Request: fold
Amino acid sequence: MSPVEKQILSLFDAGDVKAMDLLYDHYSDALYGVVLRKVGDEAAASDILQESFVKIWKRSKQYDSSKGRLFTWLVRIVKNRAIDHLRASNRKMEIQSELRVVSKENTTQAVNPMVEHDLNILLSKLDQNHRQLIEHSYILGYSHLEIAEKFDLPIGTVKTRIRKGMIELRSLFGNGR
Reply:
């Protein structure tokens, strides 16, 4: 074990954040290279490295030198974070692809023009916040989480606005008949 590794480990044991400075100074370039090769995107690699350092700090007391070198442990954390990022990115692309298919299916199905016209009239009477979210949820097929991400809203707000919009829509529908 190198003197730097010993110093980092003793700082880890003491809960001293100076350990992170040493880690960054001695290992960040190599770890960044590992992540960059894995994800192929410099911005994502920087984000992943930062997230990894946070994870390393939180798990610093879990490192066991009898199971391997410090660098090996660091690389494993960084690689796992990069893999998580790639999986999340792939899942987002799958969801977007599925949404395009669902959207095409929704637009190609025959809809009674009178029903569609009535629905559009009722939707136009809704508050814009409620209308947008209802359209994205029920017409375009977005999940609540996807809507929250798209409109940069908390998921609870999305659910509440959709619920209130549906209540308002039911009221309008009932009054129109």
